[in-house]
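Appendix B: complex inputs.
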Amino acid sequence: MDGANMNAQVGLTSPATIGADVCHLNLHKTFCIPHGGGGPGMGPIGVAKHLVPYLPGHAVVDIDNGKAIHAVSAAPWGSASILLISHAYIAMMGAEGLTNATKYAILNANYIKARLEKHYPVLYAGANGRCAHEMILDCRGFKAYGIEVTDIAKRLMDYGFHAPTVSFPVAGTVMVEPTESEPKHELDRFCNAMISIRHEIEDVEKGLADKVNNPLKNAPHTAAVITANEWEHPYTRQKAAFPLPYVAQYKFWPSVGRVNDTYGDRTLICTCPPIESYEFEESAIE
Amino acid sequence: MKLNIDYQEKFEHRHIAPNPADTTEMLHTVGVETIDELIAQTVPQKIRLAKPLNLSAAQSEFDYLNTLKQTASKNKVFKSYIGQGYYDVIVPGVIQRNILENPGWYTQYTPYQAEIAQGRLQALLNFQTMVLDLTGMEIANASLLDEGTAAAEAMFMQYSLRKNQQANVFFVSEEVFPQTIDILKTRSQPYGIELLIGDHRTVELTDQMFGAIVQYPSGNGEVYNYTGFAAKGHEKGIKLTVVADLMSLVLLTPPGEWGADIVVGSSQRFGVPMGFGGPHAAFFATKEEYKRSMPGRIIGVTIDSAGNYALRMALQTREQHIRRDKATSNICTAQALLAIMAGMYAVYHGPQGLKLIAERIHGLTILLDRSLAELGYEQQNKAYFDTLKYELGDLAKPIHGQAINNEVNLNYSGTSVTISLDETTSLEDVKTIIRFFAKVKGKSINDVAIDDIKQNIDTVIPAELLRTTPYLTHPLFNSHHSEHEMLRYIKSLEAKDLSLCHSMIALGSCTMKLNATTEMVPVTWAEFSKMHPFAPTDQVGGYMQVFDELNKWLGEITGFAAMSLQPNAGAQGEYAGLMVIRAYHQDRGDHHRNIALIPSSAHGTNPASAAMAGMKIVVVKCDDNGNIDVADLKEKAEQYKNELSCLMVT
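Resulting structure:
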């Protein structure tokens, strides 16, 4: 079983209860190791009794359980120092805290679902209409109006949010997982942003906004774009950069406009280019 | 007023954010009375645990740190000369506090949303540039998990690129680190790759070989000139991977200049603590022509909608999300934070600073060599950078005893020993070693003319292996050497990235929950960060206690009999699990069981890992919403019942 994400399971059920013989855990998910901007992570495995002798060994440090396979990582205990993080989490939460974390992860997800399902179709709800710790919002229907899921992801940046998971496991959807660590007002901020974006899509649907020159297609809007002398869009600068009141209180500015993937793959440059290309030469002002 | 003196601060209330009033409102919105009512509707009763988890009582943050401090004291921090890919470092304070210990750098996800990730994309581009300059190669990725797995990825890339489809032998120099050879063994088996482990100076290269791997400097510390070996291999169509030490490349001719096709290694000694084995960033560099076969994430330059300079992850189509079981690798998580640190170390020191550090390491090693020679110890490496090798015979035991008395760890193998110096080694440290080597022979440090030796230390690396090409010439590596400049550079990049410091990152399946400060604090405690992974077991009691507890707790949480804490990423865990299943079947004589049933909606890493474990993938149908088609599953399980190895579900 790929048990990478245990956040709906801890304290309520377990991979062994479900019937798995082997399961790996991403400690950088459920057990609090930070993602580090793309690593480190840790993926220890748990196994049922009959598989214990085969757990990985090591050439230098003896950790063989009898019939160990050769090592999978260079160090005997992988990235050992960050195991401390998961150790601290479990020790400080205890059985009840961990179980409550699972429950609140499920509550937070279902709260978002309750607020957003009027605006976005939700895939995969259980028999009781509930989601577990995450949900999939279907954005495929907007394609008919030229709005792609990427446009929603990029527009969220204007609202100060990082997009949920895009197009996994179903293309054209977003998967939302709030976790237990987010308070209600943060969930509300996110829901408000998603609902506001849904209204922006509606404007395109109804022909109230241009199909191409609209805040979704042009997102994200940088400070340079907003403050430029020229503004050639049918919507206001205010709507572009401060679409909801909360954004004005604490604005995160994307540092570049939408990146061009195909351009970069066509002319592949993977080292720091000459400094002139991205920094202004300081010249003395007389 | 009565006072409550039983109040205990609960971490749970810091980790779980909704307060009671909000919870009531949220439950109302969801349409249930209590949270347990919601759970009953969510998690089916038949899979619920029969009883609560049996774990120790929750500790407050304050109590936890106090308890852990006691546990930490069971680790003995000896001066490490073990080497073997792990070296003590001086983490620049400005990098430790503002990157390693800073949630503005450690809480982000992989930079898929490039527009709000330009800071770390730039820092990773710096890492790639640094690797290219030092290795002399043409393209590098933004890190792999560790040196051993990077070597295995290199082997597989060479295998994929082989022209002669019959060739299945991979030559491995016996002087590659043992942990690297061990991983090559794991990874070669499922593909039917045969490893030929031997001496590169005497091995006979054949048409059956598709590739070779050597280490520079070698595992024993010798700096070989591999130019002839590389040329002979190329004549036979054999590609060459070189495992290289970044610090030594400051002084040595880079492998790219003498025939390497791929260069891999660890960037740990560029300012990343040993941490008892990790995390550290490995690097992978190769030639431009192989860029589409290269594993791992590559940062590339492009333009944004306004035509301005922008960065993002390049060549995404190589990744397993798209290519599934035909992907170049199953690797997802890399070591971004550690690669960023290593790149910043180069930014901070610059080419001149690095050269001074490398020269001091090299110089002190020569001083040690010549001092021990005066005491009658015969050193075996002719050309070396930082590692000396001695055959001690009967003296091995007393030396070992003296080393322990002086809280020094050397690298022992039978009666021979290697000593590897690093940037933390001082002249005083070297004198300590000289003293106890002298004592064992009934001599004294006064028998060594250290002051004379010191006056006249010249490199032992032959001229043809000394680097002549400049490196890190880009202004980025030559502009931020005062702490203010460095601090502002780090902060200017951090400001471009959206992290959990700004807002919720609701990435499905990624669980971007709180990374509590108290959880992070012990990671940089010396008792944990300065431990070498191969330190003797009687010095690592603190770590062993943490692992024992963690194993027990994770066992309780998952319901499993035992855990392995070795896999250092999710994809590694998947692979390890599949290899364990494979070993089980083989041990029972079921060599034919090699089919993995995988739903079509599975994460692309699943089929990629199964393919790496030598399994044949049979895809189970799913509906448009990704639900497994149970009828199809039953049918396929029945159809393949004799060859079935496992079913892989998420």
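The helical segments of chain A are 15-18, 83-116, 149-158, 184-205, 223-227, 237-241, 245-249, 261-266.
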